[in-house]
Amino acid sequence: MIELINVTKIFPGAPSPSVDNVSFRVNQGNICVLLGPSGCGKTTILRMMNRLEEPSSGKILINSENTLKSDPSALRRSIGYVIQQTGLLPHRTVARNIALVPGLLGWPQEKINNRVDELLKLMGLDSGDIADKYPHQLSGGQMQRVGVARAMAADPPIMLMDEPFGAVDPIIRIRLQDEFLKLQQQVRKTICFVTHDINEAIKMADYLIIFNQGRLVQMGSPVEVLTSPADDFVLSLIGDDRGVKILDLTRAETLMEPADNISDDLLGSGCTVQSYQPVKLALEVMMKKNQDRVGVCRGNHLAGTLSWSDIKRHINKVSGEESEL
Ligand SMILES: Nc1ncnc2c1ncn2[C@@H]1O[C@H](COP(=O)(O)OP(=O)(O)OP(=O)(O)O)[C@@H](O)[C@H]1O
């Protein structure tokens, strides 16, 4: 749906390209996360997608159309854009901020009002309480939700999200991430999401693209990147605890031993997880219950068990370490 082909951006007077010969594709309905340290060119890439910047060379296709041949205003109205500072207009109420793009597109007022109400509900905001407030009267979390609602107002198929949850505290941030992932299950937008937070990247990404100094250094699913980092830079970016991060992405059923000869005692003890839940949760349940294995259930039925030694073996395998932990 979005494709970059050999895109380079050199700002006037800059000693080196901010974006250096970058090519990648974002598939429809996926969240593609651009990850990398500050200044590696992530924001510039997003801004080139909606023509707030122009590439020095190369091209960007959206639905196979070269964006440089489209009308920039029409292009921007067809793409939702969320930035860290939310970009809300301070002199407009929440409702009028959300109504901005539908208004520019000439929607009838009643349709706009209904859409504003619908979006506030979707974002878990009480319309009666918040619609007539101004941005400075909102909490950080509310402001970020309104920023996302505004970007979604005209139901664009593509959303560009630049550190959209960066300005809130870690607890609200996790809540906003969870809410957004739940919402994405319903709306299935094509999303390019920028962050420099590895944990956020792993959590949000269907597909991860890593940059260093304007260059693309690795792309793949979070599990692929964690299990096979391309070089020392990626290794340092993802951190020493990549084994633990993988446990958060691995479903309990993939490591369990089948339940053939096991009694159902574990079921009674509450020392269980569901088959689709992450191995990391299984580890937490084990520690809480002071056990060295958990039951892995499908619904009410015990499908297998997962032991501490199964998990250790897995961590050693993905970390490529010979030694026992
Ligand atoms: N308008 C501009 N003029 C000149 N240089 C710019 C401009 N915009 C960005 N740059 C430079 O391009 C490089 C990449 O910046 P960019 O904002 O894309 O990085 P980033 O990875 O998004 O960083 P951050 O995570 O800090 O937002 C930086 O060196 C920055 O100084």
From TrEMBL:
Any matching Pfam family: ABC_tran
PROSITE patterns: ABC_TRANSPORTER_1, ABC_TRANSPORTER_2
A GO BP entry: quaternary ammonium group transport
Residues in ABC transporter domain copies: 2-238
Keywords (A to Z) from UniProt: ATP-binding, Nucleotide-binding, Transport
Record carries keyword ATP-binding: yes
Nucleotide-binding in keyword set: yes
InterPro entries found in the cross-reference section: AAA+_ATPase, ABC_transporter-like_ATP-bd, ABC_transporter-like_CS, CBS_dom_sf, P-loop_NTPase
GO molecular function, one term: ATP hydrolysis activity
Family: Belongs to the ABC transporter superfamily.
Protein name: ABC transporter related protein
Organism: Desulfonatronospira thiodismutans ASO3-1
